[in-house]
Every structure is written in structure tokens, then in C-alpha cells.
Amino acid sequence: MSNKNDNEKIVVFDKYDNQVDANIVKGVLESNGVIAGVIGDSTANALLLTPMYVVVFERDLERARQIMESPADDQDGPEATEDA
Questions:
Q1: Residue 37, CA distances (Å) to 29, 34, 70, 73, 84 in order
Q2: What pLDDT band is residue 50 in, cutting at 50, 70 and 90?
Q3: Is the pLDDT assigned to residue 35 strictly greater than 90?
Q4: pTM across the whole model
Q5: Which pLDDT tens digit goes with each residue over 8-30?
Q6: Can you list the domains of the chain with their CATH numbers?
Q7: Would you call 73 exposed, middle or buried from its count of C-beta atoms within 10 A (0-12, 13-18, 19+)?
Q8: Is 7 exposed, middle or buried (0-12, 13-18, 19+ CB in 10 A)?
Q9: 30, 60 in Cβ contact below 8 A?
Q10: Which letter, b or e, does each residue of 17-56 get, where b requires 16 or more Cβ atoms within 10 Å of its Cβ?
Q11: Sheet strands (E) in 1-84
């Protein structure tokens, strides 16, 4: 029997060398509808010298991978349109 909270498990999407890169990825994921967070050591984080982890819900992991593997023009979000 499956626990209803199985889909609420938080997993590491990827590890980044600094807070800036991690927050860029977080922003791309969130602009594409995936809830994401950044975790790491807050003291070293102030100096931008610590590995940071982008985390997502396990249920969104595959979608997050698809988003980050797609070309940059596909990451503008659903409202982006081009006028001819």
C-alpha cells in the first residue's frame, strides 16, 4: 500500500558550485511550473564558496530534467509568444 506522502518527498535535483548558479536553475524551473528550492551551508553561502543543492519534489524530478535539458528558447514559460 502506498503512503499518500510519497509524492511529497524532496530530492536533490543537482549540485552547483555556488549560490548564483543554483538560483538561476531554481528560477528556470519555477518559471516552468516546477517548485524548487536551494539548500546549502548558510555561513559559507554568504561568501559564495559552498556547494549548493537545488531540490525538487520527487514527483517533479523527471520534468525538471526535461526542462534543464531543453534548448534555452523553450524555457521562457508558457506565456511567452513571438509577434510576427
A1: 10, 10, 20, 23, 36
A2: confident
A3: yes
A4: 0.72
A5: 899 999 999 888 899 999 999 99
A6: 10-70 (3.30.70)
A7: exposed
A8: exposed
A9: no
A10: eebebbeebbebbeebebebebebeeeebeeeebebebbb
A11: 10-16, 36-40, 52-57
